[in-house]
């Protein structure tokens, strides 16, 4: 074994150790790899930066911009609405739709963006259907990871393997060449989740008591509203439908007060207490829990609970914001009622913060004082259009809207851009990187995103990871380390034939991707796969596909990919939950690789 092989294997083991232990921040580790490779004289200064000029980096960055454009223009929102409509209250259809549809979508936009957007939708559907969200979120993330194999642009590691394949053989995968494999993987994930996977996940209480990153939760607790403010949903064909809150005796009988009614994303005034309720109306009500439960039981209302977690108001499109009254404000001494604040802004005053404590009674008639904190509730369109001016200052401003309604008319154009990117790349009119870059430029030219927003939506951690780890693959190949690892696989599994060795490549790819990011696992295993294919005289695409499918199965641990990590807190998952859920699915993935890959890419050249 040469010194170069020893050095590159030492660097590889050090990278794995740092990713697992977290001794060094994970976003710093990639920067250390090029320095170590140059210091060990394993790559030249020119080679160490070749990853940043690869088509994979350009394509991945462009896809983040395209994905953000689809979100901001409302395309993904419409898909999520479609998901809500087709699920109904059937647990079977719910699980089928919440895995199959996001999985298909992940084949065309970035996996992380797909999971991030579908999480609130799945949580809301789970709440409506009274299904534990823990039974849905991890299956949805796993389906997205495997569904990303429907196209070559579905995941960043697909592009990395394709780039290395083109550099090694001069020919890569076509746009839809992975489609048959992706269909089998996604289909198997959906069937596994319905038949077994979701049942292996906990049914315990959701993570509703943990500290949330959402300002809405902290504001509810700061103003002591967690046991006073409730969302109620008017279910179809219940006693509440067609009755007004006045008829129900909301105030007289139950001692509750209405803040607002949200109907089809429109916020109705508190005076709508006289209006007949419609199915799917969402009520925001102040009062004690026992009174809320009594009203819900009598009228057939569904109690969503108090606003909390990432989706501050899980049923409606509303949110909380907080203002503070600055010195010399023109509103000092006036009341919200005198200012016609509700009529002018569409926002309701929920509580005041004064003298170190919250005031929640008759907020609209309290004269405003300097330094008051003012808690407001309203639809997202109203909170985002509100301008504090000289009267107020933001204390907790609304978050930027992921899909502003004023951009929804650009949705067809954003969808057309994605279609043109797919068609031009699939038919070979443009290289994939050029097609993706053109699509990103189209999103900017249509003002769906500003240049500043385009820079912000790119997940630079992934881009840096690809650029910095790319030369590690070159060092493994140049030093002979990948050939040594290939020889180990051949000596160990060669007696089982090419299929046995193929499974070995897939298994080690799957093993590496659990503690590492799947891009890193792909960079390490792809040169090994090529050396194995060369030694067997087999089609390198078959072994490259085994790497792609293997590193997609990053759901045995929450750290191998952002997708399973995103759902960890929301599903209240523990490490053993990932292992229990993922082991069976990993075996299914290996079986599909063994059965399907040789038929799509026969071993014979």
Largest sheet: 5 strands, antiparallel
How many helices? The count is: 25
Rg estimate, integer Å: 27 Å
- Strand segment tally: 10
Instruction: Indicate the low-confidence ranges by residue numbers.
Output: 206-215, 308-312
What overall form do the CA principal axes indicate? elongated
SSE-based structural type: alpha+beta
Question: Would you summarize the structure shown here?
Answer:
The protein is an alpha+beta fold and 605 residues long. It has helices spanning 3-21, 29-39, 45-48, 55-72, 75-87, 91-106, 111-129, 137-147, 156-169, 179-195, 215-222, 245-248, 289-299, 341-345, 380-385, 411-426, 432-445, 451-457, 460-479, 481-493, 497-513, 518-536, 540-552, 562-566, 575-600, and strands spanning 229-234, 257-263, 266-268, 282-286, 301-305, 318-324, 348-354, 357-359, 373-379, 393-396.
Can you give keywords for this protein?
about 600 residues, alpha+beta, Alpha-Beta Plaits, 5-stranded antiparallel sheet, 25 helices, 10 strands, elongated
